[in-house]
Design a protein that fits this description.
Helices cover 36% and strands 18% of the residues.
Length: 477
Amino acid sequence: MSVYYISNIEARLGITLSLCASQRPLCWAGAKVINRCRIWVTACKPGSSPVQSSPIVHNQRHRYWWSADGADGKTGGDSNEPDSEKLSPFVQYRRAQRRTVNVPRRIYILGAGNIGGFVAHSLAGLPHRPPITLLLPSQKSLTSWHEQGESIKLTTNGLLDTQSDFDVSFVRRPRPPEEASEVQSNSHLVSEARDNPQDETIHNLIVTVKALNTVDALRRVAHRLTQESSILFIQNGMGVIEEVNEKVFPDPAARPQYMLGITSHGIYQTKPFSLVHSGYGTTALAILPRKIEEVKPYFESSALYLLRTITRTPVLAAVGFAPTDLLQLQLEKLLVNAVINPLTALMGCLNGDLLYQPSISRVIRLLLAELCLVVKSLPELQGVPNVKVRFDIKRLEGQLLVIAKKTAANKSSMLQDINQGRLTEIEYITGYIIRRGEEVGIQCVLNYMVKHMIKTKERLAWEKHGNLLPTESRNPG
């Protein structure tokens, strides 16, 4: 039997590692290792020993490879004490990682547009892929799904890749109160509802619909979400979480675990469920603590499972971040969108037309001056290192010009929405900065003007396409 030794001994954290290979008898080596240090494991023949290593052999029962114990060597797999002062963050993470074994593997994706279809296609390409269910919010989307061969097609560098074997579900609007009470009063309807797949619990949900449609979409599946569920929002704009808390999950004790994600991949749609991957990018993810003041937050097992599944998907190039780091990445993207999207929508031009225009350059600097001032004054960023440097006007102007040059031939999403007579996400881009500015005592006069110019053009586009005018309740502000 081989004996395993561990180097880099003498440090703070205590764990017990189990090593198993080729079904051979196990030999346990316990050691104290440094947090985040590389642990070198050496297999030696009986009678020999590696240099600078000393084994501590324990006769313990067989354990899974992901198990991790405290320094006392006692098992803690079923313990629910993540805030214990005696446990290191590494041990807490390993225990939480082991809890994901019992999480259902099925992933639901709400919204099958550009980002939703891209995420679904990428997850479907994994070996031992998880079951995937597409939640379609309209009958039109369901009809298009059948017409396109019940598959998602992605073209990258001229190569077509088709993924199928998705489950699809049409999510209906919630029943009115009087109809819901009628269902509860009839036992046969209640039993029928329990057997309906529309009422199955959702543990892992990815939301990719537009920010302004998020509340309506989540209301359709809110009854299927529990406190142990996790919701990953991958959207443009900010302020969606606050609106969801207010209108969908007002009770903090019943809220699911929230996750946020942003992606820089370039995706556009040629027809329903047929996508083109026009630009490679990355995806940033973070699990949000339930309470901001939590020093050692407890993450649901479903959130850890969703994070591990997304980050092991090569095409997405996903990386996990701390919530504060992701917030800064979100704000960087938001400030760029708050300049490029409204200006291109107002002038009806491509992104590249903003380059080398002296008049537009002055407007960009004035808008960025207000935006950067608000961001640097946010209370959640006070004390964070290098915030003033990161959100410097000159730095963000250079970043904006680089993005405009890379996407010179593209139409911004806001311009596409206006051309097609759809509501824009201006309230979650420029509107978010205006609201946060008011909270810290800054009046964003220029951005306020830009927001209402977009809303006016939005209304004119609705009239041009013969639609009803958008009401304030649908698009507040």
